[in-house]
Amino acid sequence: MYSNRLIFKTSNDDEIFYLKDTILINFGVSRNGFSTSELNPGTNDSYKSVFNQHLSQEKIDYLVDHDVRQYLMNECALLGIDSNYSTGLITLAEMKNVSIVNRKFKNTEVTAIVTAGVRTNATRAGDPASYWEENGEFHLGTINIILLTNVHLDKSTLSEAFMTITEAKTVALNNLRIPSQYSNGFATGTGTDGVAVFSNNDGDDTLTNAGKHSKLGELMAGAVIEAIPKAISKQVWITSKSQSNALVRLNRYKLDINEFYDNLDHDKFEFIRQLRIDARKQENVVIATSVLNLIDEVENNLVEKSAAYDLAVKIKEDCNSYPIRALLEYWINYFIR
């Protein structure tokens, strides 16, 4: 068994351990919950533990020819926990990059334990599929959320909590303007996310609403919205600062940049050197974002293309950077001319 390091303890005496490649949570109270895992999935009234595990390449290779549920059961045995009363999530994110956020209001408390990686697998609900399933297929969890609360919730409220957590994940990604890797839209998650939410069977207080109007829903969503960007920053170094870049923003609407450079009436290396400098300037980020917003409006059939084009050209002309202005002209002519 791996050497343990206790990294957090909740008011219910739930102990969160950081192990070699696993975050293990042993519950201090009897818990019911809802899990997307293949081990004890859906709702369950007698959870004793939950874990989130990083998959090494060796484990990925092993899972190609083995059943995921059986693998999770085997991991329970290695962790010294009963697979009948446990559930587990798996991911490529490393456990050292976990983010833990605790929020309280009067006697209600929630704790979110999150790992997240969005650089290659971010996607938007409704994007073109990257696979189809016929005879079963293994998928790697990318944004994994475990959420604990000290109050009791019945099955319907747990389902509502799951919905609130999922919406909060989308808010967190939108706040960072994480792009989908499969379309021009913003990501609403990754293709392989996992969620496990648990309430306190021993709690004296039973809450009946975990939606967006409720204080419980606010605490849950707030904890997730805070935890996800922290986990993303640790795992893939994407932050609000790194996103404040005109090139990063423009990259959401992907074009063949080589074609642009082939027709560039300017020294390419000098152009790129100046572009890297100008892309970080706030006035250029604002201008690029304004143009992209007009492209979004056209893509979603919210404004007429001709009106968007005329305004985009005016905005572009206000840009004092030749490299940024040239790129914007290329994007405008391609998407909304």
Model description:
The protein is an alpha+beta fold and 337 residues long. The protein folds into two domains: 6-237, L-amino peptidase D-ALA esterase/amidase; 244-335, no CATH class. Helix content is 39%, strand content 22%. It has helices at residues 57-63, 68-79, 155-175, 215-236, 240-243, 246-250, 257-262, 268-278, 282-299, 305-317, 322-335; strands spanning 6-9, 15-18, 22-35, 42-54, 86-91, 99-105, 108-115, 122-123, 144-149, 189-190, 194-200. Strands 1, 2, 3, 4, 5, 6, 7, 9 and 11 form a nine-stranded mixed beta sheet that branches. It has a two-stranded antiparallel ribbon with strand order 8-10. Strand 6 (99-105) and strand 7 form a beta hairpin. Helix 3 (155-175) crosses helix 4 and helix 9 packs antiparallel against helix 10. 37% of the residues are buried. The model is unreliable at 133-141 (pLDDT under 50).
Task: Briefly summarize what is shown.
The protein has 11 helices and 11 strands. The protein is α+β, with helices and mostly antiparallel strands. It folds into 2 domains: 6-237, 4-Layer Sandwich (L-amino peptidase D-ALA esterase/amidase); 244-335, no CATH class.
Q: What key attributes describe this structure?
A:
9-stranded mixed beta sheet, about 325 residues, two-stranded antiparallel ribbon, 2 domains, 11 helices, alpha+beta, L-amino peptidase D-ALA esterase/amidase
